[in-house]
Design a protein that fits this description.
- With about 325 residues, the chain is of the alpha/beta class.
- The chain has a domain of about 60 residues.
- It is built from 10 helices and 12 strands.
- Strands 6-7-8-3-9-10-12-11 form an 8-stranded mixed beta sheet, with helices on both faces. A 4-stranded antiparallel beta sheet has the order 2-1-4-5, with helices on one face.
- The longest helix is centred in the middle third of the chain and has 18 residues.
């Protein structure tokens, strides 16, 4: 994909905060006994997207499609293979360690697992204040006041300061993780399956908290999830990934009501309807997900697509406008 979609959304008057251009992240495997060349996994393959200040871009797709890798590559937690990540027009892909050190104050991540992402030997105060200590912000007393303030914002009492992670529930641990991510007052936050490990009732509470914090602090979210119901609840726009590529992106309402790509249609057909009297036409995809080591030629989805033609087997579709302004799809059939 070479085009850079600029999507219409409820916050389309806001300036672009983050722009991703032709981003790639390839992993090289080990050379086998009979392999002349080591295998290459194209985890993120030529992705271009924009995220406006204050909005939430939902990123959905099956497990293994490259969602989390994309989020970590944007933050330079893992090095990109090629491409650009423009933050307020500045290409952070070219930043050195010192420049990136300062940039990390503005860009943070909330991890999926609230159990493994917190050091069990550190107290709540140590966990949440760690970013402040790393950047030398404030005295010990000032750091304590900032930690108490952020804990209050995420719904935790200051009496928890000296407790350890094992003393908390999953929802409380994720609140600690959110507090740690927001203590430096970032502008952009990658939410990497931030509620997928939580019970349904707790999940709703944490989602409401994240939306509350977004409004209060004017945060911009990249919300990564495989749960389309959750993404619909929190997102302004939605991008759909398949085998390392974005196949559709658009405003939440239009994408959910009129999906253009067959893969998006299949994903949405799997969302349960909380009404026993209503039925949805379930689209069952045949065949297995192709190997990321050897993705199909042409459209990567053609091996499972019921509408595939000879063109799909040889020609790679690019993201182009489909329907209303701001809706883009990479599909020969839809265009």
């Amino acid at each position: 994909m070479s085009e850079n979609p600029k999507s219409k959304n409820p916050k389309d008057e806001s300036p672009i905060l983050l722009e991703i251009r032709d981003l790639r992240k390839y992993f090289t495997g080990k050379k086998g006994l009979f392999n002349r060349k080591p295998p290459v996994v194209k985890a993120v393959d030529d992705i271009s997207l924009t995220i406006r200040r204050g909005e939430t871009l939902g990123l959905v797709g099956e497990s293994g499609c490259g969602k989390s890798t994309l989020g970590r590559t944007i933050l330079k937690l893992i090095p990109m293979t090629s491409g650009q990540v423009l933050y307020e027009g500045q290409d952070i892909a070219a930043y050195n360690k010192k420049q990136m050190w300062e940039m990390r104050k503005k860009m943070q991540i909330i991890f999926q697992d609230p159990y493994s992402s917190l050091n069990p030997r550190m107290t709540v105060f140590d966990l949440v204040s760690a970013p402040l200590q790393v950047y030398g912000i404030g005295s010990k007393e000032e750091q304590k006041e900032m930690v108490i303030s952020i804990l209050k914002d995420v719904g935790l009492d200051q009496q928890y300061l000296n407790r350890f992670p094992h003393e908390f529930s999953g929802g409380q641990r994720q609140r600690i993780g959110i507090a740690r991510a927001l203590i430096l007052n970032p502008e952009f936050v990658v939410c990497d399956e931030a509620v997928s490990a939580l019970d349904v009732s707790v999940r709703a509470q944490v989602l409401n908290l994240m939306q509350k914090m977004q409004k209060k602090r004017n945060l911009t979210y990249l919300f990564i999830s495989h749960d389309l119901s959750v993404v619909r609840h929190v997102s302004d726009r939605v991008a759909v990934m398949y085998l390392g590529s974005v196949v559709e992106v658009g405003g939440k309402k239009e994408l959910y009501s009129a999906p253009k790509h067959p893969y998006t249609q299949a994903l949405l057909s799997a969302i349960p309807i909380p009404d026993a009297n209503r039925k949805r036409n379930r689209i069952i995809l045949e065949g297995d997900v192709p190997s990321a080591y050897r993705p199909p030629a042409g459209c990567k989805f053609h091996t499972r697509c019921p509408y595939a033609t000879e063109q799909c087997k040889t020609e790679v579709p690019v993201l182009k406008g489909a329907g209303e302004e701001g809706h883009f799809v990479a599909c020969h059939k839809a265009l």
